Amino acid sequence: MADGRRPTDRRVALRLADGDGRAAGIRATADRLGIELEERPGETDGTSIGNTRLPDDTPDWFIEAALLRALEPSHILFLCVANSARSQLGEGLARALAEASNADGGSAPVKISSAGSVPTRVRPQAIEVMREIGIDISHHRSNGVDDVERPVDVVITLCAEEVCPVWLDTAVRVHWGLPDPAGAGDSEDEELQAFRDARDELRRRLGVLFGGRAL
To answer: Are 170 and 76 in contact (CB under 8 A)?
Structure first.
């Protein structure tokens, strides 16, 4: 982070447009994540968290992503069970977005990691669907939770059907449960499409976290 403070030490600026009925929901989300808000004079043309303007129809994940962006974390960790699919997609996408942001002078460098409670191997379908959008994760390896370099500022868990790994160190925790694409569908093509769906959903959410950039 640019000022040397941990995200949990920071307050996030919230500016509410007059009459915006989402105030209670935004405050509840911030409280659930352990993020302290600093409410500032309202905007006339919209509500914003940090420097992220919220659309009128905002899903919960968008608010979470905007809060994470405002924290300016130095180290983001993606967690699932096997560290073979969803968390690998998250790591690859976030790393590419962080590099693009740094190249644009948009933010300080951020470390990106992924891990699992029972690490196995990176699935070839994950490598293939990332290659489709110009990102090479063929060099990635599955890591265990104990392999992760500390400290971590933000932990994003991606498990849906399984019990997600527990992160015991101090961090802001966000849960974006996505269906496991491995073994999805009745054919290889359907399984590959499930990997694309997971990739695209993570790309949408991480695009907000890294300032609206697209891949």
So the answer is: no
Rounded distance between C-alpha atoms, residue 158 and residue 140, angstroms: 18
For residue range 132-161, list pLDDT tens digits in order.
999 999 999 999 999 999 999 999 999 998
Residue 130 in any domain: the answer is: yes
Alpha helices for the chain (secondary structure H): 23-33, 60-71, 86-103, 124-131, 188-209
Decide if 215 is inside a domain. no
pTM: 0.92
CATH number, domain of 169, equals 3.40.50.2300
Range of the domain at 25: 7-70
Residues labelled catalytic: 80, 159, 164
Give, in degrees to the nearest 5, the angle at Cα 161 between 144 and 201.
85
